[in-house]
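An example makes the point: we print one protein in full, the chain in one-letter code, the fold tokenised, without further comment:
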Amino acid sequence: MSEKKKPRVILADDESHIREYLKAILVSMKCEVVGEAENGQEAVELYKSNKPDLIFLDVNMPLKTGDEALQEIMQEDSNAFVIMLTSVADMETVKDCIGKGAANYILKDTPRKEMMEMIKETWSNRLKSRNK
């Protein structure tokens, strides 16, 4: 992605194969994965301790849902850059998360190339809004 330093990213999903898949995509996009969480509670703790440039949050996780984790993260940092992950197109939950501050959402079964484009576009929009 386009910035002088590698964007620092946290991946939060209770399915390890999803984290591995995203990690491979993000590393190929010149990102640094600085943490991985298996549940929403770990995601919030990792966010607070690492202050990443971007966090991917699964909607359905144990201990704290992605929605609950998003709320806590946004309370901690109203400028947090969050992309929600979901395997079910539960549009009500997704719309709710966007309303609470998530920058975008990605369906987990999105093809790799399309997922990369969505991430790049969301990142680019984020940089543009910061520089206004």
Observations:
- Helices lie at 16-28, 40-50, 66-76, 91-99, 112-130.
- The mean pLDDT is 90.
- Residues 8-130 form a domain with the Rossmann fold fold (CATH 3.40.50.2300).
